[in-house]
Write a structure and sequence with these properties.
By secondary structure, the chain is of the alpha+beta class. The chain has two helices and twelve strands; from the N terminus they run αββββββββββββα.
């Protein structure tokens, strides 16, 4: 029985080492730590994607898909971070549709990623031009996304999928992506006007009663 305890401890240690240093990608409302927001149909959100290599991994390149819950959302603009990420360096390049061509409506066939039924756009082969690397937190890109005006009011989830991170030698590091919740709600002004209108009708009824 005594020999089982060190073996179990070794397994626990190995499992913890295997997950140590993984690179995670997060989506936030730009300038905040919010991983969710309210937005009206037809509204535009400005979102930032950051990577976290807090385990000490030195990241030289990264790629991922921003996966949308529905087709028809519009990518209005994209800005790469001031760290110096850029496209088309020829090292891990797979070409990047929509790098400069925005605004663009995102449909299932905009970028044929791993899942042909998912509407998404790709951030691929981004790398510092001076062969530098980053560790800890780093902004990858900021983008603006417009929700179609006819979107049904509901809670929608955007995810960062098909993630990849590389060191300076091109060796892939373990990585994963987080999700972002977007609550499509009526415009606050419209809601207030509706409430005010109901109040006026109620007042008129009281006067005529």
């Amino acid at each position: 029985m005594r020999s089982v305890v060190p073996f179990a401890a070794l397994l626990l240690l190995l499992s913890s080492v295997a997950t140590f240093g993984d690179v995670s990608f997060y989506m936030y409302v730009e300038g905040t730590s919010d991983q969710g927001m309210d937005i009206a149909p037809g509204g535009t959100a400005r979102l930032a994607i950051m990577l976290n290599a807090a385990g000490g991994e030195n990241v030289a390149g990264a790629s991922y898909d921003v996966q949308l819950p529905l087709e028809g959302w519009t990518l209005q603009s994209r800005e790469y971070s001031d760290f110096g990420w850029f496209e088309g360096d020829g090292v891990w390049d797979g070409s990047n549709p929509l790098a400069e061509n925005t605004p663009a409506v995102i449909n299932n066939d905009t970028y044929l990623g791993p899942d042909a039924n998912t509407a998404d756009f790709w951030f691929n082969t981004a790398r510092n031009p001076y062969d530098d690397t980053v560790t800890g937190w780093q902004t990858c890109e900021v983008f603006e996304l417009t929700v179609p005006s006819g979107t049904v009011l509901d809670l929608y989830r955007l995810t960062i999928g098909n993630t990849h991170a590389y060191d300076i030698a091109g060796t892939e590091l373990a990585s994963s992506g987080q999700y972002f919740d977007m609550n499509v709600t009526p415009e606050p002004v419209s809601s207030l006007l509706f409430i005010a209108g109901v109040g006026v009708l109620a007042l008129r009824r009281r006067r005529t009663a």
